[in-house]
Write a structure and sequence with these properties.
Blueprint lengths: L1 E6 H14 L2 E7 L2 E6 L25 E8 L2 E4 L6 E6 L1 H15 L5 H8 L1 E6 L24 E6 L2 E6 L2 H4 L8 E2 L2 H13 L12 H9 L6 H5 L8 H4 L7 E7 L5 E8 L9 E5 L2 E4 L4 H15 L1 H4 L9 H5 L7 H10 L1
Parallel strand pairs: 2-6, 6-7, 7-8
Antiparallel strand pairs: 1-9, 1-10, 2-3, 4-5, 4-12, 8-9, 11-12, 13-14
Helix pairs in contact: 6-9
Bound molecules: iron/sulfur cluster (2 copies).
Length: about 350
């Protein structure tokens, strides 16, 4: 791995040249929040963001995605990937993308996701401001961020740029990069280590301890009690970078021969998520109560997927906590309570 350095003004020119030659996406301001959006000039790029409203998964797996046009018995894919550079992804979202890659690659490869994912160059960046509900410093600390192409760390006077893959190396042509010296590399390491200690929220136990205890807490009263105020809105699922459930629907045109198959994000907290038809208009819901749905979400994050992912399916971004109207979605509060039971 090569490590480069570019000074502040060189970095501005670098971003300007990327804008001219590539589709560049990164954190941009939206009112008083941030989203991943198109970068049209250097000033759009807000590497000082704390967290974005939606995670970067929306670029590979859009909230609503047409996947197939059909004509009678014939079908044609709607997926038309466009190469893009995704710049400024925090390390917790890099971990989440890596988890989603694995889940969409296993068994039947999901072309609709992978086509967009594979034409994207991902450049991470260090966290300059910590969101007040984040807890990335105490969750899944054993899981390394991987799968990205390069990583930028802001230090005094400029940026240290770690080149991980050929896709990142190819970008060097757009900027005046020098080899980073030992002092600059050490400064970057320090910045990235220190941020882990800056979260105000914290899980009190290791992932292995949480995995075991949460799995054995199926009958705890905490689930129903916490979920008493749940609106079943599914917002905590929708904003989560590691949630990947979707619904598929066929929309038929008036000729009743042609139409479009689309998929859209779905979430296990919604009441109809676990409804199944029994035929003749009869329905069964196998997670009927708010508590059972709430428990399912936390079990998925803290224990069910651990073996497959090598750690919890939560990266501590804090998005779910900040969108929950009832302020009950925060995994830290409920997991710390379960651990004390
Ligand atoms: S926990 Fe909060 S965000 Fe999630 S479904 Fe319930 S009310 Fe909505
Ligand atoms: S469960 Fe909440 S904190 Fe964990 S990754 Fe999902 S949105 Fe982020």
């Amino acid at each position: 791995m090569e490590t480069k350095f570019i000074n502040e003004s060189g970095f501005q020119d670098f971003v300007g040249k990327l804008v001219e030659s590539r589709n560049l996406v990164g954190p941009v301001a939206k009112r008083n929040k941030f989203v991943f959006g198109e970068i049209n000039k250097y000033e759009d790029l807000r590497l000082d963001y704390d967290v974005t409203l939606l995670p970067p998964k929306k670029l590979f797996f859009p909230p609503k995605q047409d996947i197939l046009k059909f004509y009678g018995q014939k079908g044609e894919s709607c997926i038309d990937p466009d190469p893009q550079i995704l710049l400024g992804v925090h390390f917790y979202d890099i971990k989440a993308i890596d988890m989603t890659d694995l889940l969409f690659r296993e068994n039947n490869e999901d072309y609709n996701y992978l086509a967009n994912r594979e034409c994207t160059t991902i450049i991470g960046s260090n966290i300059q401001n910590v969101h007040d509900r984040a807890f990335f410093g105490s969750v899944g600390t054993e899981v390394e961020p991987k799968g990205h192409d390069g990583f930028l760390t802001k230090i005094e006077g400029g940026y240290v740029f770690e080149i991980i893959t050929a896709k990142a190396k190819e970008l060097l042509q757009f900027g005046d990069f020098q080899d980073a010296n030992e002092n600059q590399i050490k400064q970057a390491e320090k910045v990235n280590a220190e941020v882990l200690t800056k979260c105000s929220e914290k899980l009190n136990n290791t992932s292995a301890e949480i995995n075991k205890k949460v799995r054995n807490s199926f009958d705890s009263k905490i689930w129903e009690k916490t979920a008493e105020d749940c609106f079943s809105c599914g917002s905590c699922n929708i904003v989560c970078p590691t949630c990947y459930c979707f619904d598929v629907q066929d929309d038929w045109y008036l000729d009743q021969e042609t139409g479009v198959r689309a998929r859209s994000w779905d979430g296990c907290l919604k009441e109809d998520f676990s409804e199944v038809s029994l035929g003749q208009g009869s329905i069964e819901n196998f997670r009927e109560t708010r508590g059972s749905r709430y428990r399912h979400r936390i079990m998925r994050k803290a224990t069910y997927l651990n073996e497959k992912l090598g750690g919890p399916a939560c990266v501590g971004c804090g998005r779910c906590s900040s969108v929950c109207t009832s302020d009950i979605a925060d995994p830290v509060n409920v997991i710390n309570q379960i651990m004390e039971e």
